[in-house]
Every structure is written in structure tokens, then in C-alpha cells.
Amino acid sequence: MQRSETSPNKAALDLGAAIDIAVCAAHAGAAILQSYAHHRNDLVIDHKARNDLVSQADREAEAAILDILRERSPAYGIVAEETGGAPEGLATWYIDPLDGTTNFLSGIPHYAVSIALVAHAGTRVNADTLLEQDTPVVGVVYDPNREELFAGLHGVGAWLNGRRIHCSRTAQLADAVLATGLPFRDFSFADEFMPTLDAALRQSRGVRRMGAAALDLAWTACGRYDGYWEMGLAPWDVAAGTVILREAGGVCEDMDRIQPWPISGRLVSGNPAVCSALHGMIAPHLKPRA
Predict the structure, then answer these.
(1) Strands 77-80 and 91-99
(2) Which residue in 42, 62, 122, 159 has a CA-CA distance of 20 to 30 Å to 200?
């Protein structure tokens, strides 16, 4: 959850050092995932809930990531999918060691490691910028199957394997290729979501559902998708992709426009024109939220 403190922190974040740490940790986690990728039948798999799986690959990848983050940035908080945690300090790491677990366990080569640093309100970044609200400032999404490393740095830019990326310039929803995710574990929002899917199918060029939210955001950042919306996600699914997409010139917002970033797991994103059109398409189907 967003922290309530408003008093400014005197220290400033070193974003350059933080992104180096995140890249190192992402590679370490991905190496473990790939070591298991061709031996999936040997994995120990647990059911956290219906359609919510976790394997030893997830756990070991997260442990490798945490070792690096704790050693190299001990003052930051950590919120990780498998081991939990809480926001604290100047900033907090949000970690998904395996975004796209179902794909991974099924042998579908579409999954990623996602690591983000969220700076808390009152923290200084880039030496002279004082943040007024919690903000994702570093994001790394690594796809080990394609060897594609997406990275974003607040106020600096976004890159794919070191090359700057930008979101698409598609101006109309009718010309847009969209991404989304279907309810699979929590169906409490299905009556909100399904009408938005029907509208998107009718109003866009096409809708894709690939099963890895971090990559959906990264692909929107580099223009492969024009827009992306989803409900029922977790903060670690979207934190890294949020900063990458924003730094690529796109928009990534809380669907209900309550939180400063989609920490609730309900998001609308895309290039500015398509994101605005998506908001308009979705809004009539949403239930009021405080």
C-alpha cells in the first residue's frame, strides 16, 4: 500500500546504481528459471489457490534476486510475490521472479522476471526532483527466451537491449492492437471485465491475451501493442512495466484513477491517444470505488 508519510527524506536515490542492481538481479533470477525450463516435469509445484501455482523455480529465482538486492541495497524495502514484505525506507523493491508461471509450467516460452523500485512520497530522485507521491522510478523486465531486457529509468528514458524505445503512434482505437488478461483465479470482477472485452473486440483491430502482464506492458512500451488494460493483478506484476511504459512516452494509470500508479492491479495503459480512448471505453462498465 502507499505510505502515508509526507515529510521529505533528505537523502536522494541513486537511480543509476539501482538500475544496475536490478539488471544484475534479473539475470540471476532468469538463470535459475532457464535451468529448470527443460526439466519442468521434475519441478515441485504447490497450489496457493485455484489456478494459482508456485514451483521451486519461482522460489529459487526469488531467493537469488533477494540475495542481490539485500546485499547491494539493504536500506530499501522489499515486496516480493512469494515471500511478501512491506514498503519502507526511501524506496521499495517490487519483485515478481516469474511473471507468467502458467506459461512456464506449460512450456510456453512467454514469461519474464520483473523488478521495480518504487520511490516513496517525499524522496528525492535525480538530485533535484522531490516526489509528491509514490512513484515507480526503476523498472527491469527480462524475457530470457528472447533475451530481451526492457529497462526504464524515471526522467531518463526506456530501452530494449540498450536501444531507446517509444510507444506507438496509433491515433485511433479502431486501428489499435490491444492486450489484456482474462480472469483465471479471482472471478469477482468478471462482470466488470467481460463487457470491456466485448467492447474492445468490437472497437479495436484486435485483442491479444499472452499471460504475462510485465511483458504486456513492456511490449506496449516498444510499440508492439498500442494499449493494454487488465484487472486482478498484483503490484509486483505492474510496477516495472509502469515506469518502462511511462518513460517510453506512454501512459500507465490506475483504472479507477485513485492511486498514483496501478498498485491496485487495475490498469489502463497505452500511447496517450489509445489510453484515453480505453478509459472512455471501460468507464461505463466500472463499479464505483472509494
Answers:
(1) parallel
(2) 159
DSSP 240: H
Residues 6+ apart with CB under 8 A from 285: 192, 195, 196, 199
- Beta-bridge mates of residue 259: none
| Residue 133, CA distances (Å) to 10, 14, 219, 221, 272 in order | 16, 18, 26, 23, 21
Q: State the Cα–Cα distance between residues 140 and 124, nearest whole angstrom.
A: 21
**Final residue belonging to a domain, choices 102, 134, 164:** 164
Q: Letter for the amino acid at 51?
A: N
Same structural domain, 108 and 61:
yes
Q: Indicate if 102 and 25 belong to the same structural domain.
A: yes
Q: Give 73-111 as a DSSP string.
A: -TTSEEEETTTEEE--SSEEEEEEEEE-HHHHHHT-S--
Binding residues: 81, 96, 98-99, 237
CATH number, domain with residue 130? 3.30.540.10
Q: Of 164, 182, 217, which residue sits at a domain end?
A: 164
- Residue ranges of the binding site for Mg(2+): 81, 96, 98-99, 237
Q: Would you say the C-alpha torsion 263, 222, 158, 69 has a positive or negative sign?
A: positive
- Entry field: residues in the chain: 290
Interval 121-159: pLDDT, tens: 999 997 778 999 999 999 999 999 999 999 999 999 999
Residue 7 lies in a domain: no
Residues whose CB falls within 8 Å of the CB of residue 254, separated by 6 or more in sequence, listed in order: 260, 261, 262, 263, 264, 266, 267
Q: Are residues 95 and 47 in the same domain?
A: yes
CA trace torsion 220, 222, 223, 225 (10° rounding): -30
Cell of 251: 501512459
- pTM for this entry: 0.92
Percent of the chain with pLDDT over 70: 91
